[in-house]
Amino acid sequence: MKAKLEEVAQTYGIENWGAGYFSINKKGHLVVHPSEYDRRGADIMEILEDLQRRRIQAPLLLRFPQILVNQMKKLTGAFRSAIKEFDYNGRYYGVFPMKVNPRREVVEEFLRAGRRYDFGIEVGSKPELYAALANEQASDSVMICNGFKDESYIRLALLGTELGKNVVIVIEKIGELETVIQLSQEIGVRPLIGIRVKLYSKGSGRWEKSGGESAKFGLTTSEILEVIRVLRENEMVDSLRLLHFHIGSQITSIKRVKNAIKEAARVYAKIRAMKINIDYMDVGGGLGVDYDGSKTSSESSANYTVQEFANDVVYTIKSVCEDEDVPEPNIITESGRMLTSYHAVLVANIRAEIETVVGEYESVKVDDDDPQVIVELKDLCMGINSKNYAEYYHDAIEHKDEMYTLFNLGLISLEDRAKGEILFWEVCERTAKYAQNDKSMIDEYEELRQMLAAKYLCNFSIFRSLPDSWAIDQLFPIMPLHKLDKTPTELATLVDITCDSDGVIDKFVDLKDIKETLELHPFKGEPYFLGIFLIGAYQEVMGSGHNLFGSLNEAHIVIEDEGYLITKVVPGGNLGESVETARYERAALQESFGELAAEQVKRGRLSAERANELCRQYESYVSCYTYLS
Ligand SMILES: *Cc1c(COP(=O)(O)O)cnc(C)c1O
């Protein structure tokens, strides 16, 4: 069935969640753009064909570095224009929080392209700091060290200070301060010190508990005063330069942002009034991404834009500073989700449709010799219509239950059971169809429709590539990458290839609600590719090796005037690498396989020649991709 492209785009809500990065071309293929204003585009199906020629197959991850840079531009631009609009007397410095996506390519892109925007980096652990330190960054930019720290963490941070970087050690726990003072005096460097304040204000959404009185991080008011006292005592109060807070990720409501800023700005002003020259205010992360495109405060959305966020931060700090008559601080953000979500697209192919009902209703022959319950199910099938379907459907459920009872008592055969199942599901399908046309009944039969929905087997692991869908029911936009000039006529849910029954996606983005099924095209065995979008934040690093599925094939795409360039291809994990994560050794596996084969030769069950061949074949699996090919 031919369809208007706009209608299909609407079905999937591209314009709501895509932030201008995605569109559909005349061929009905999905196209990626480097920014919302740049109409150059790359046809994802063409990219897939190119990669196929290089023997890089789905499932795979496409990375668009231009989108990373554009998001950084957008964030910086929003703050710069807010600073201008409100005549704010401070500057803006963005930092990229490394935990959101620590991949080298991502971090390097931010620091390289970020030189023009004074973009820095935020680390929350020793390994992140270790990796970040060796990167070149803009001389004006900052490196923020968050997270709990021991002596060796602080020593490593001070190495960065000696290297000439603006490393800010943020005190999360009062005990860390002593170590910072002691080590910096011992080494003879002047550290930059920040304090993380525990706010009374909370965020909103899933990560609400990261803020508020019982938060895991941050100093209480009396601890802040203690920090100041100890620094004064050591004549180091000039080192105190930054006030930090972070009230949680994906803050869905702008009101919570404003409240937190108001409170933190007061804390800043009161400290500043004590003649302490704190000159940076770090407002943390939490800038929300509108995954479902609804622009609401629901958990997978946010009710504000990037510009509104920037305006509120700048304006609120300014008004508190005016009120308290203190200078305005430079502003730092640690937004990570907003910067990285859009740049990565997961491409997975559909392998099969898993049928709930297998068997044709027409082929079921029922006669009077059949058990009564089967005859009655057949009668229901024949007689069901738009007026009686509710009653017939309930009768069918009773008969089906009775049929299984009879089967368990040994009273009916496997053939009877098969007939009964086919007849029962036929009644269900007809019921769903009648209910669909009956507006008053739509909700009543939602569960039935859900049961009848096709299940498409999708070649990827939710645990490896989409952990937040499994762990916290987060929504991600999903849609076909081609056939978009045809109306999707099937309703389906997705199952992944792990053996885990939790490996299912049955919640999909919708403007007003959450959809329980996704509109897809009928699957007849020909190649069918789906894209899973906005997965660039947290998913890659939090994914796990359930069933030993490994990393995905990956390609980096730069969009040009005439099409695109594939600038990097990284083959995904193979069986050899995958088993090593569970501490097997390839050589040892090969050796024990060989010993088992030799044993069979000794017993005369296998020829030596065949045994060698088996060993050779086993060995060749070492380089096999972990997904279905
Ligand atoms: C996780 C984290 C961030 C990033 O938050 P986003 O919601 O991804 O912007 C920033 N700062 C700190 C301290 C964090 O723990």
Automatic annotation (TrEMBL):
Stated family: Belongs to the Orn/Lys/Arg decarboxylase class-II family. SpeA subfamily.
Gene3D superfamilies: 1.20.58.930, Alanine racemase (3.20.20.10), Lyase, Ornithine Decarboxylase, Chain A, domain 1 (2.40.37.10)
Positions of transmembrane segments: none
Role according to the record: Catalyzes the biosynthesis of agmatine from arginine.
Entry-linked InterPro entries: Ala_racemase/Decarboxylase_C, Arg_decarb_HB, Arg_decrbxlase, De-COase2_CS, De-COase2_N, Orn/DAP/Arg_de-COase, PLP-binding_barrel
Record EC number: 4.1.1.19
Domain annotation Arginine decarboxylase helical bundle: ranges: 367-448
Signal peptide feature range: none
Source organism of this protein record: Chloracidobacterium validum
Name of protein: Arginine decarboxylase
Any GO molecular function: arginine decarboxylase activity
Cofactor(s) needed for function: Mg(2+); pyridoxal 5'-phosphate
Alphabetized UniProt keyword annotations: Decarboxylase, Lyase, Magnesium, Metal-binding, Polyamine biosynthesis, Pyridoxal phosphate, Spermidine biosynthesis
Orn/DAP/Arg decarboxylase 2 N-terminal domain boundaries: 78-340
